[in-house]
Amino acid sequence: MVTKIKKILVPLDGSKFSEKALQYACEMVKAFDAKIILLYVVEKSPTLNILDRNEYLKIIQKYGTNTLKKANDVVLKKGINAKTILKKGNIVNEIEKIVKTEKCDLIIVGNKGLGTITRVLLGSVSNKLAQSSSCSLLIVK
């Protein structure tokens, strides 16, 4: 039995891996005539002593807004309309909340994020999603 894919969620972090995941998602949107949701989650993790927490969150939120805008521009050039969402919180938890509220059928995510330090501190988002996701997951290398 083949399940129809109606909604695809693409969590973004601005890395080349999430950009590649976005390219895959665009192809799948066209193939399945699906809808696409672009998501950026501002991680509310502890910060280094260099910046205070509010300043850190402002910087990351601005980065997230820019990341979503760039991704939206990419999909628009392919003739695809996307819903964009910016959230604050734990990345994996927020992805799961969006999957449930938006009734997503598939998550497409890059296999690596922005950097080694981030992955060590936060753990691999793709790995955590592979363990906990309530819908199908495509990890793009």
What topology does this entry show?
Blueprint: E1 7-11, H1 16-32, E2 35-42, H2 53-77, E3 82-88, H3 91-102, E4 106-110, H4 116-122, H5 125-132, E5 136-140
Parallel strand pairs: 1-2, 1-4, 2-3, 4-5
Shape: globular
Q: What quaternary form is this?
A: single chain
Order of helices and strands: EHEHEHEHHE
Q: Percent range for helical residues?
A: 40-55%
Strand content: 15-25%
Structural class: alpha/beta
| Strand order of the biggest β-sheet | 3-2-1-4-5
Low-confidence regions:
116-123
Count of distinct strands? 5
Q: Biggest sheet: strands, sense, closure?
A: 5 strands, parallel
Mean pLDDT: 86
Distance between the termini: 27 Å
Rg over CA atoms, rounded to whole Å, is 15 Å
Helix tally equals: 5
List its traits.
5 helices, globular, 5-stranded parallel beta sheet, 141 residues, alpha/beta, 5 strands
Q: What is shown here, in short?
A:
The protein is α/β, with parallel strands linked by helices and 141 residues long. It has helices at 16-32, 53-77, 91-102, 116-122, 125-132, and strands spanning 7-11, 35-42, 82-88, 106-110, 136-140.
Description of the structure:
This protein is an alpha/beta fold and 141 residues long. It is 49% helix and 21% strand. It has a five-stranded parallel sheet, sandwiched between helices. The longest helix is centred in the middle third of the chain and has 25 residues, at 53-77. The radius of gyration is 15 Å and the shape is globular. Mean pLDDT is 86; it is low at 116-123.
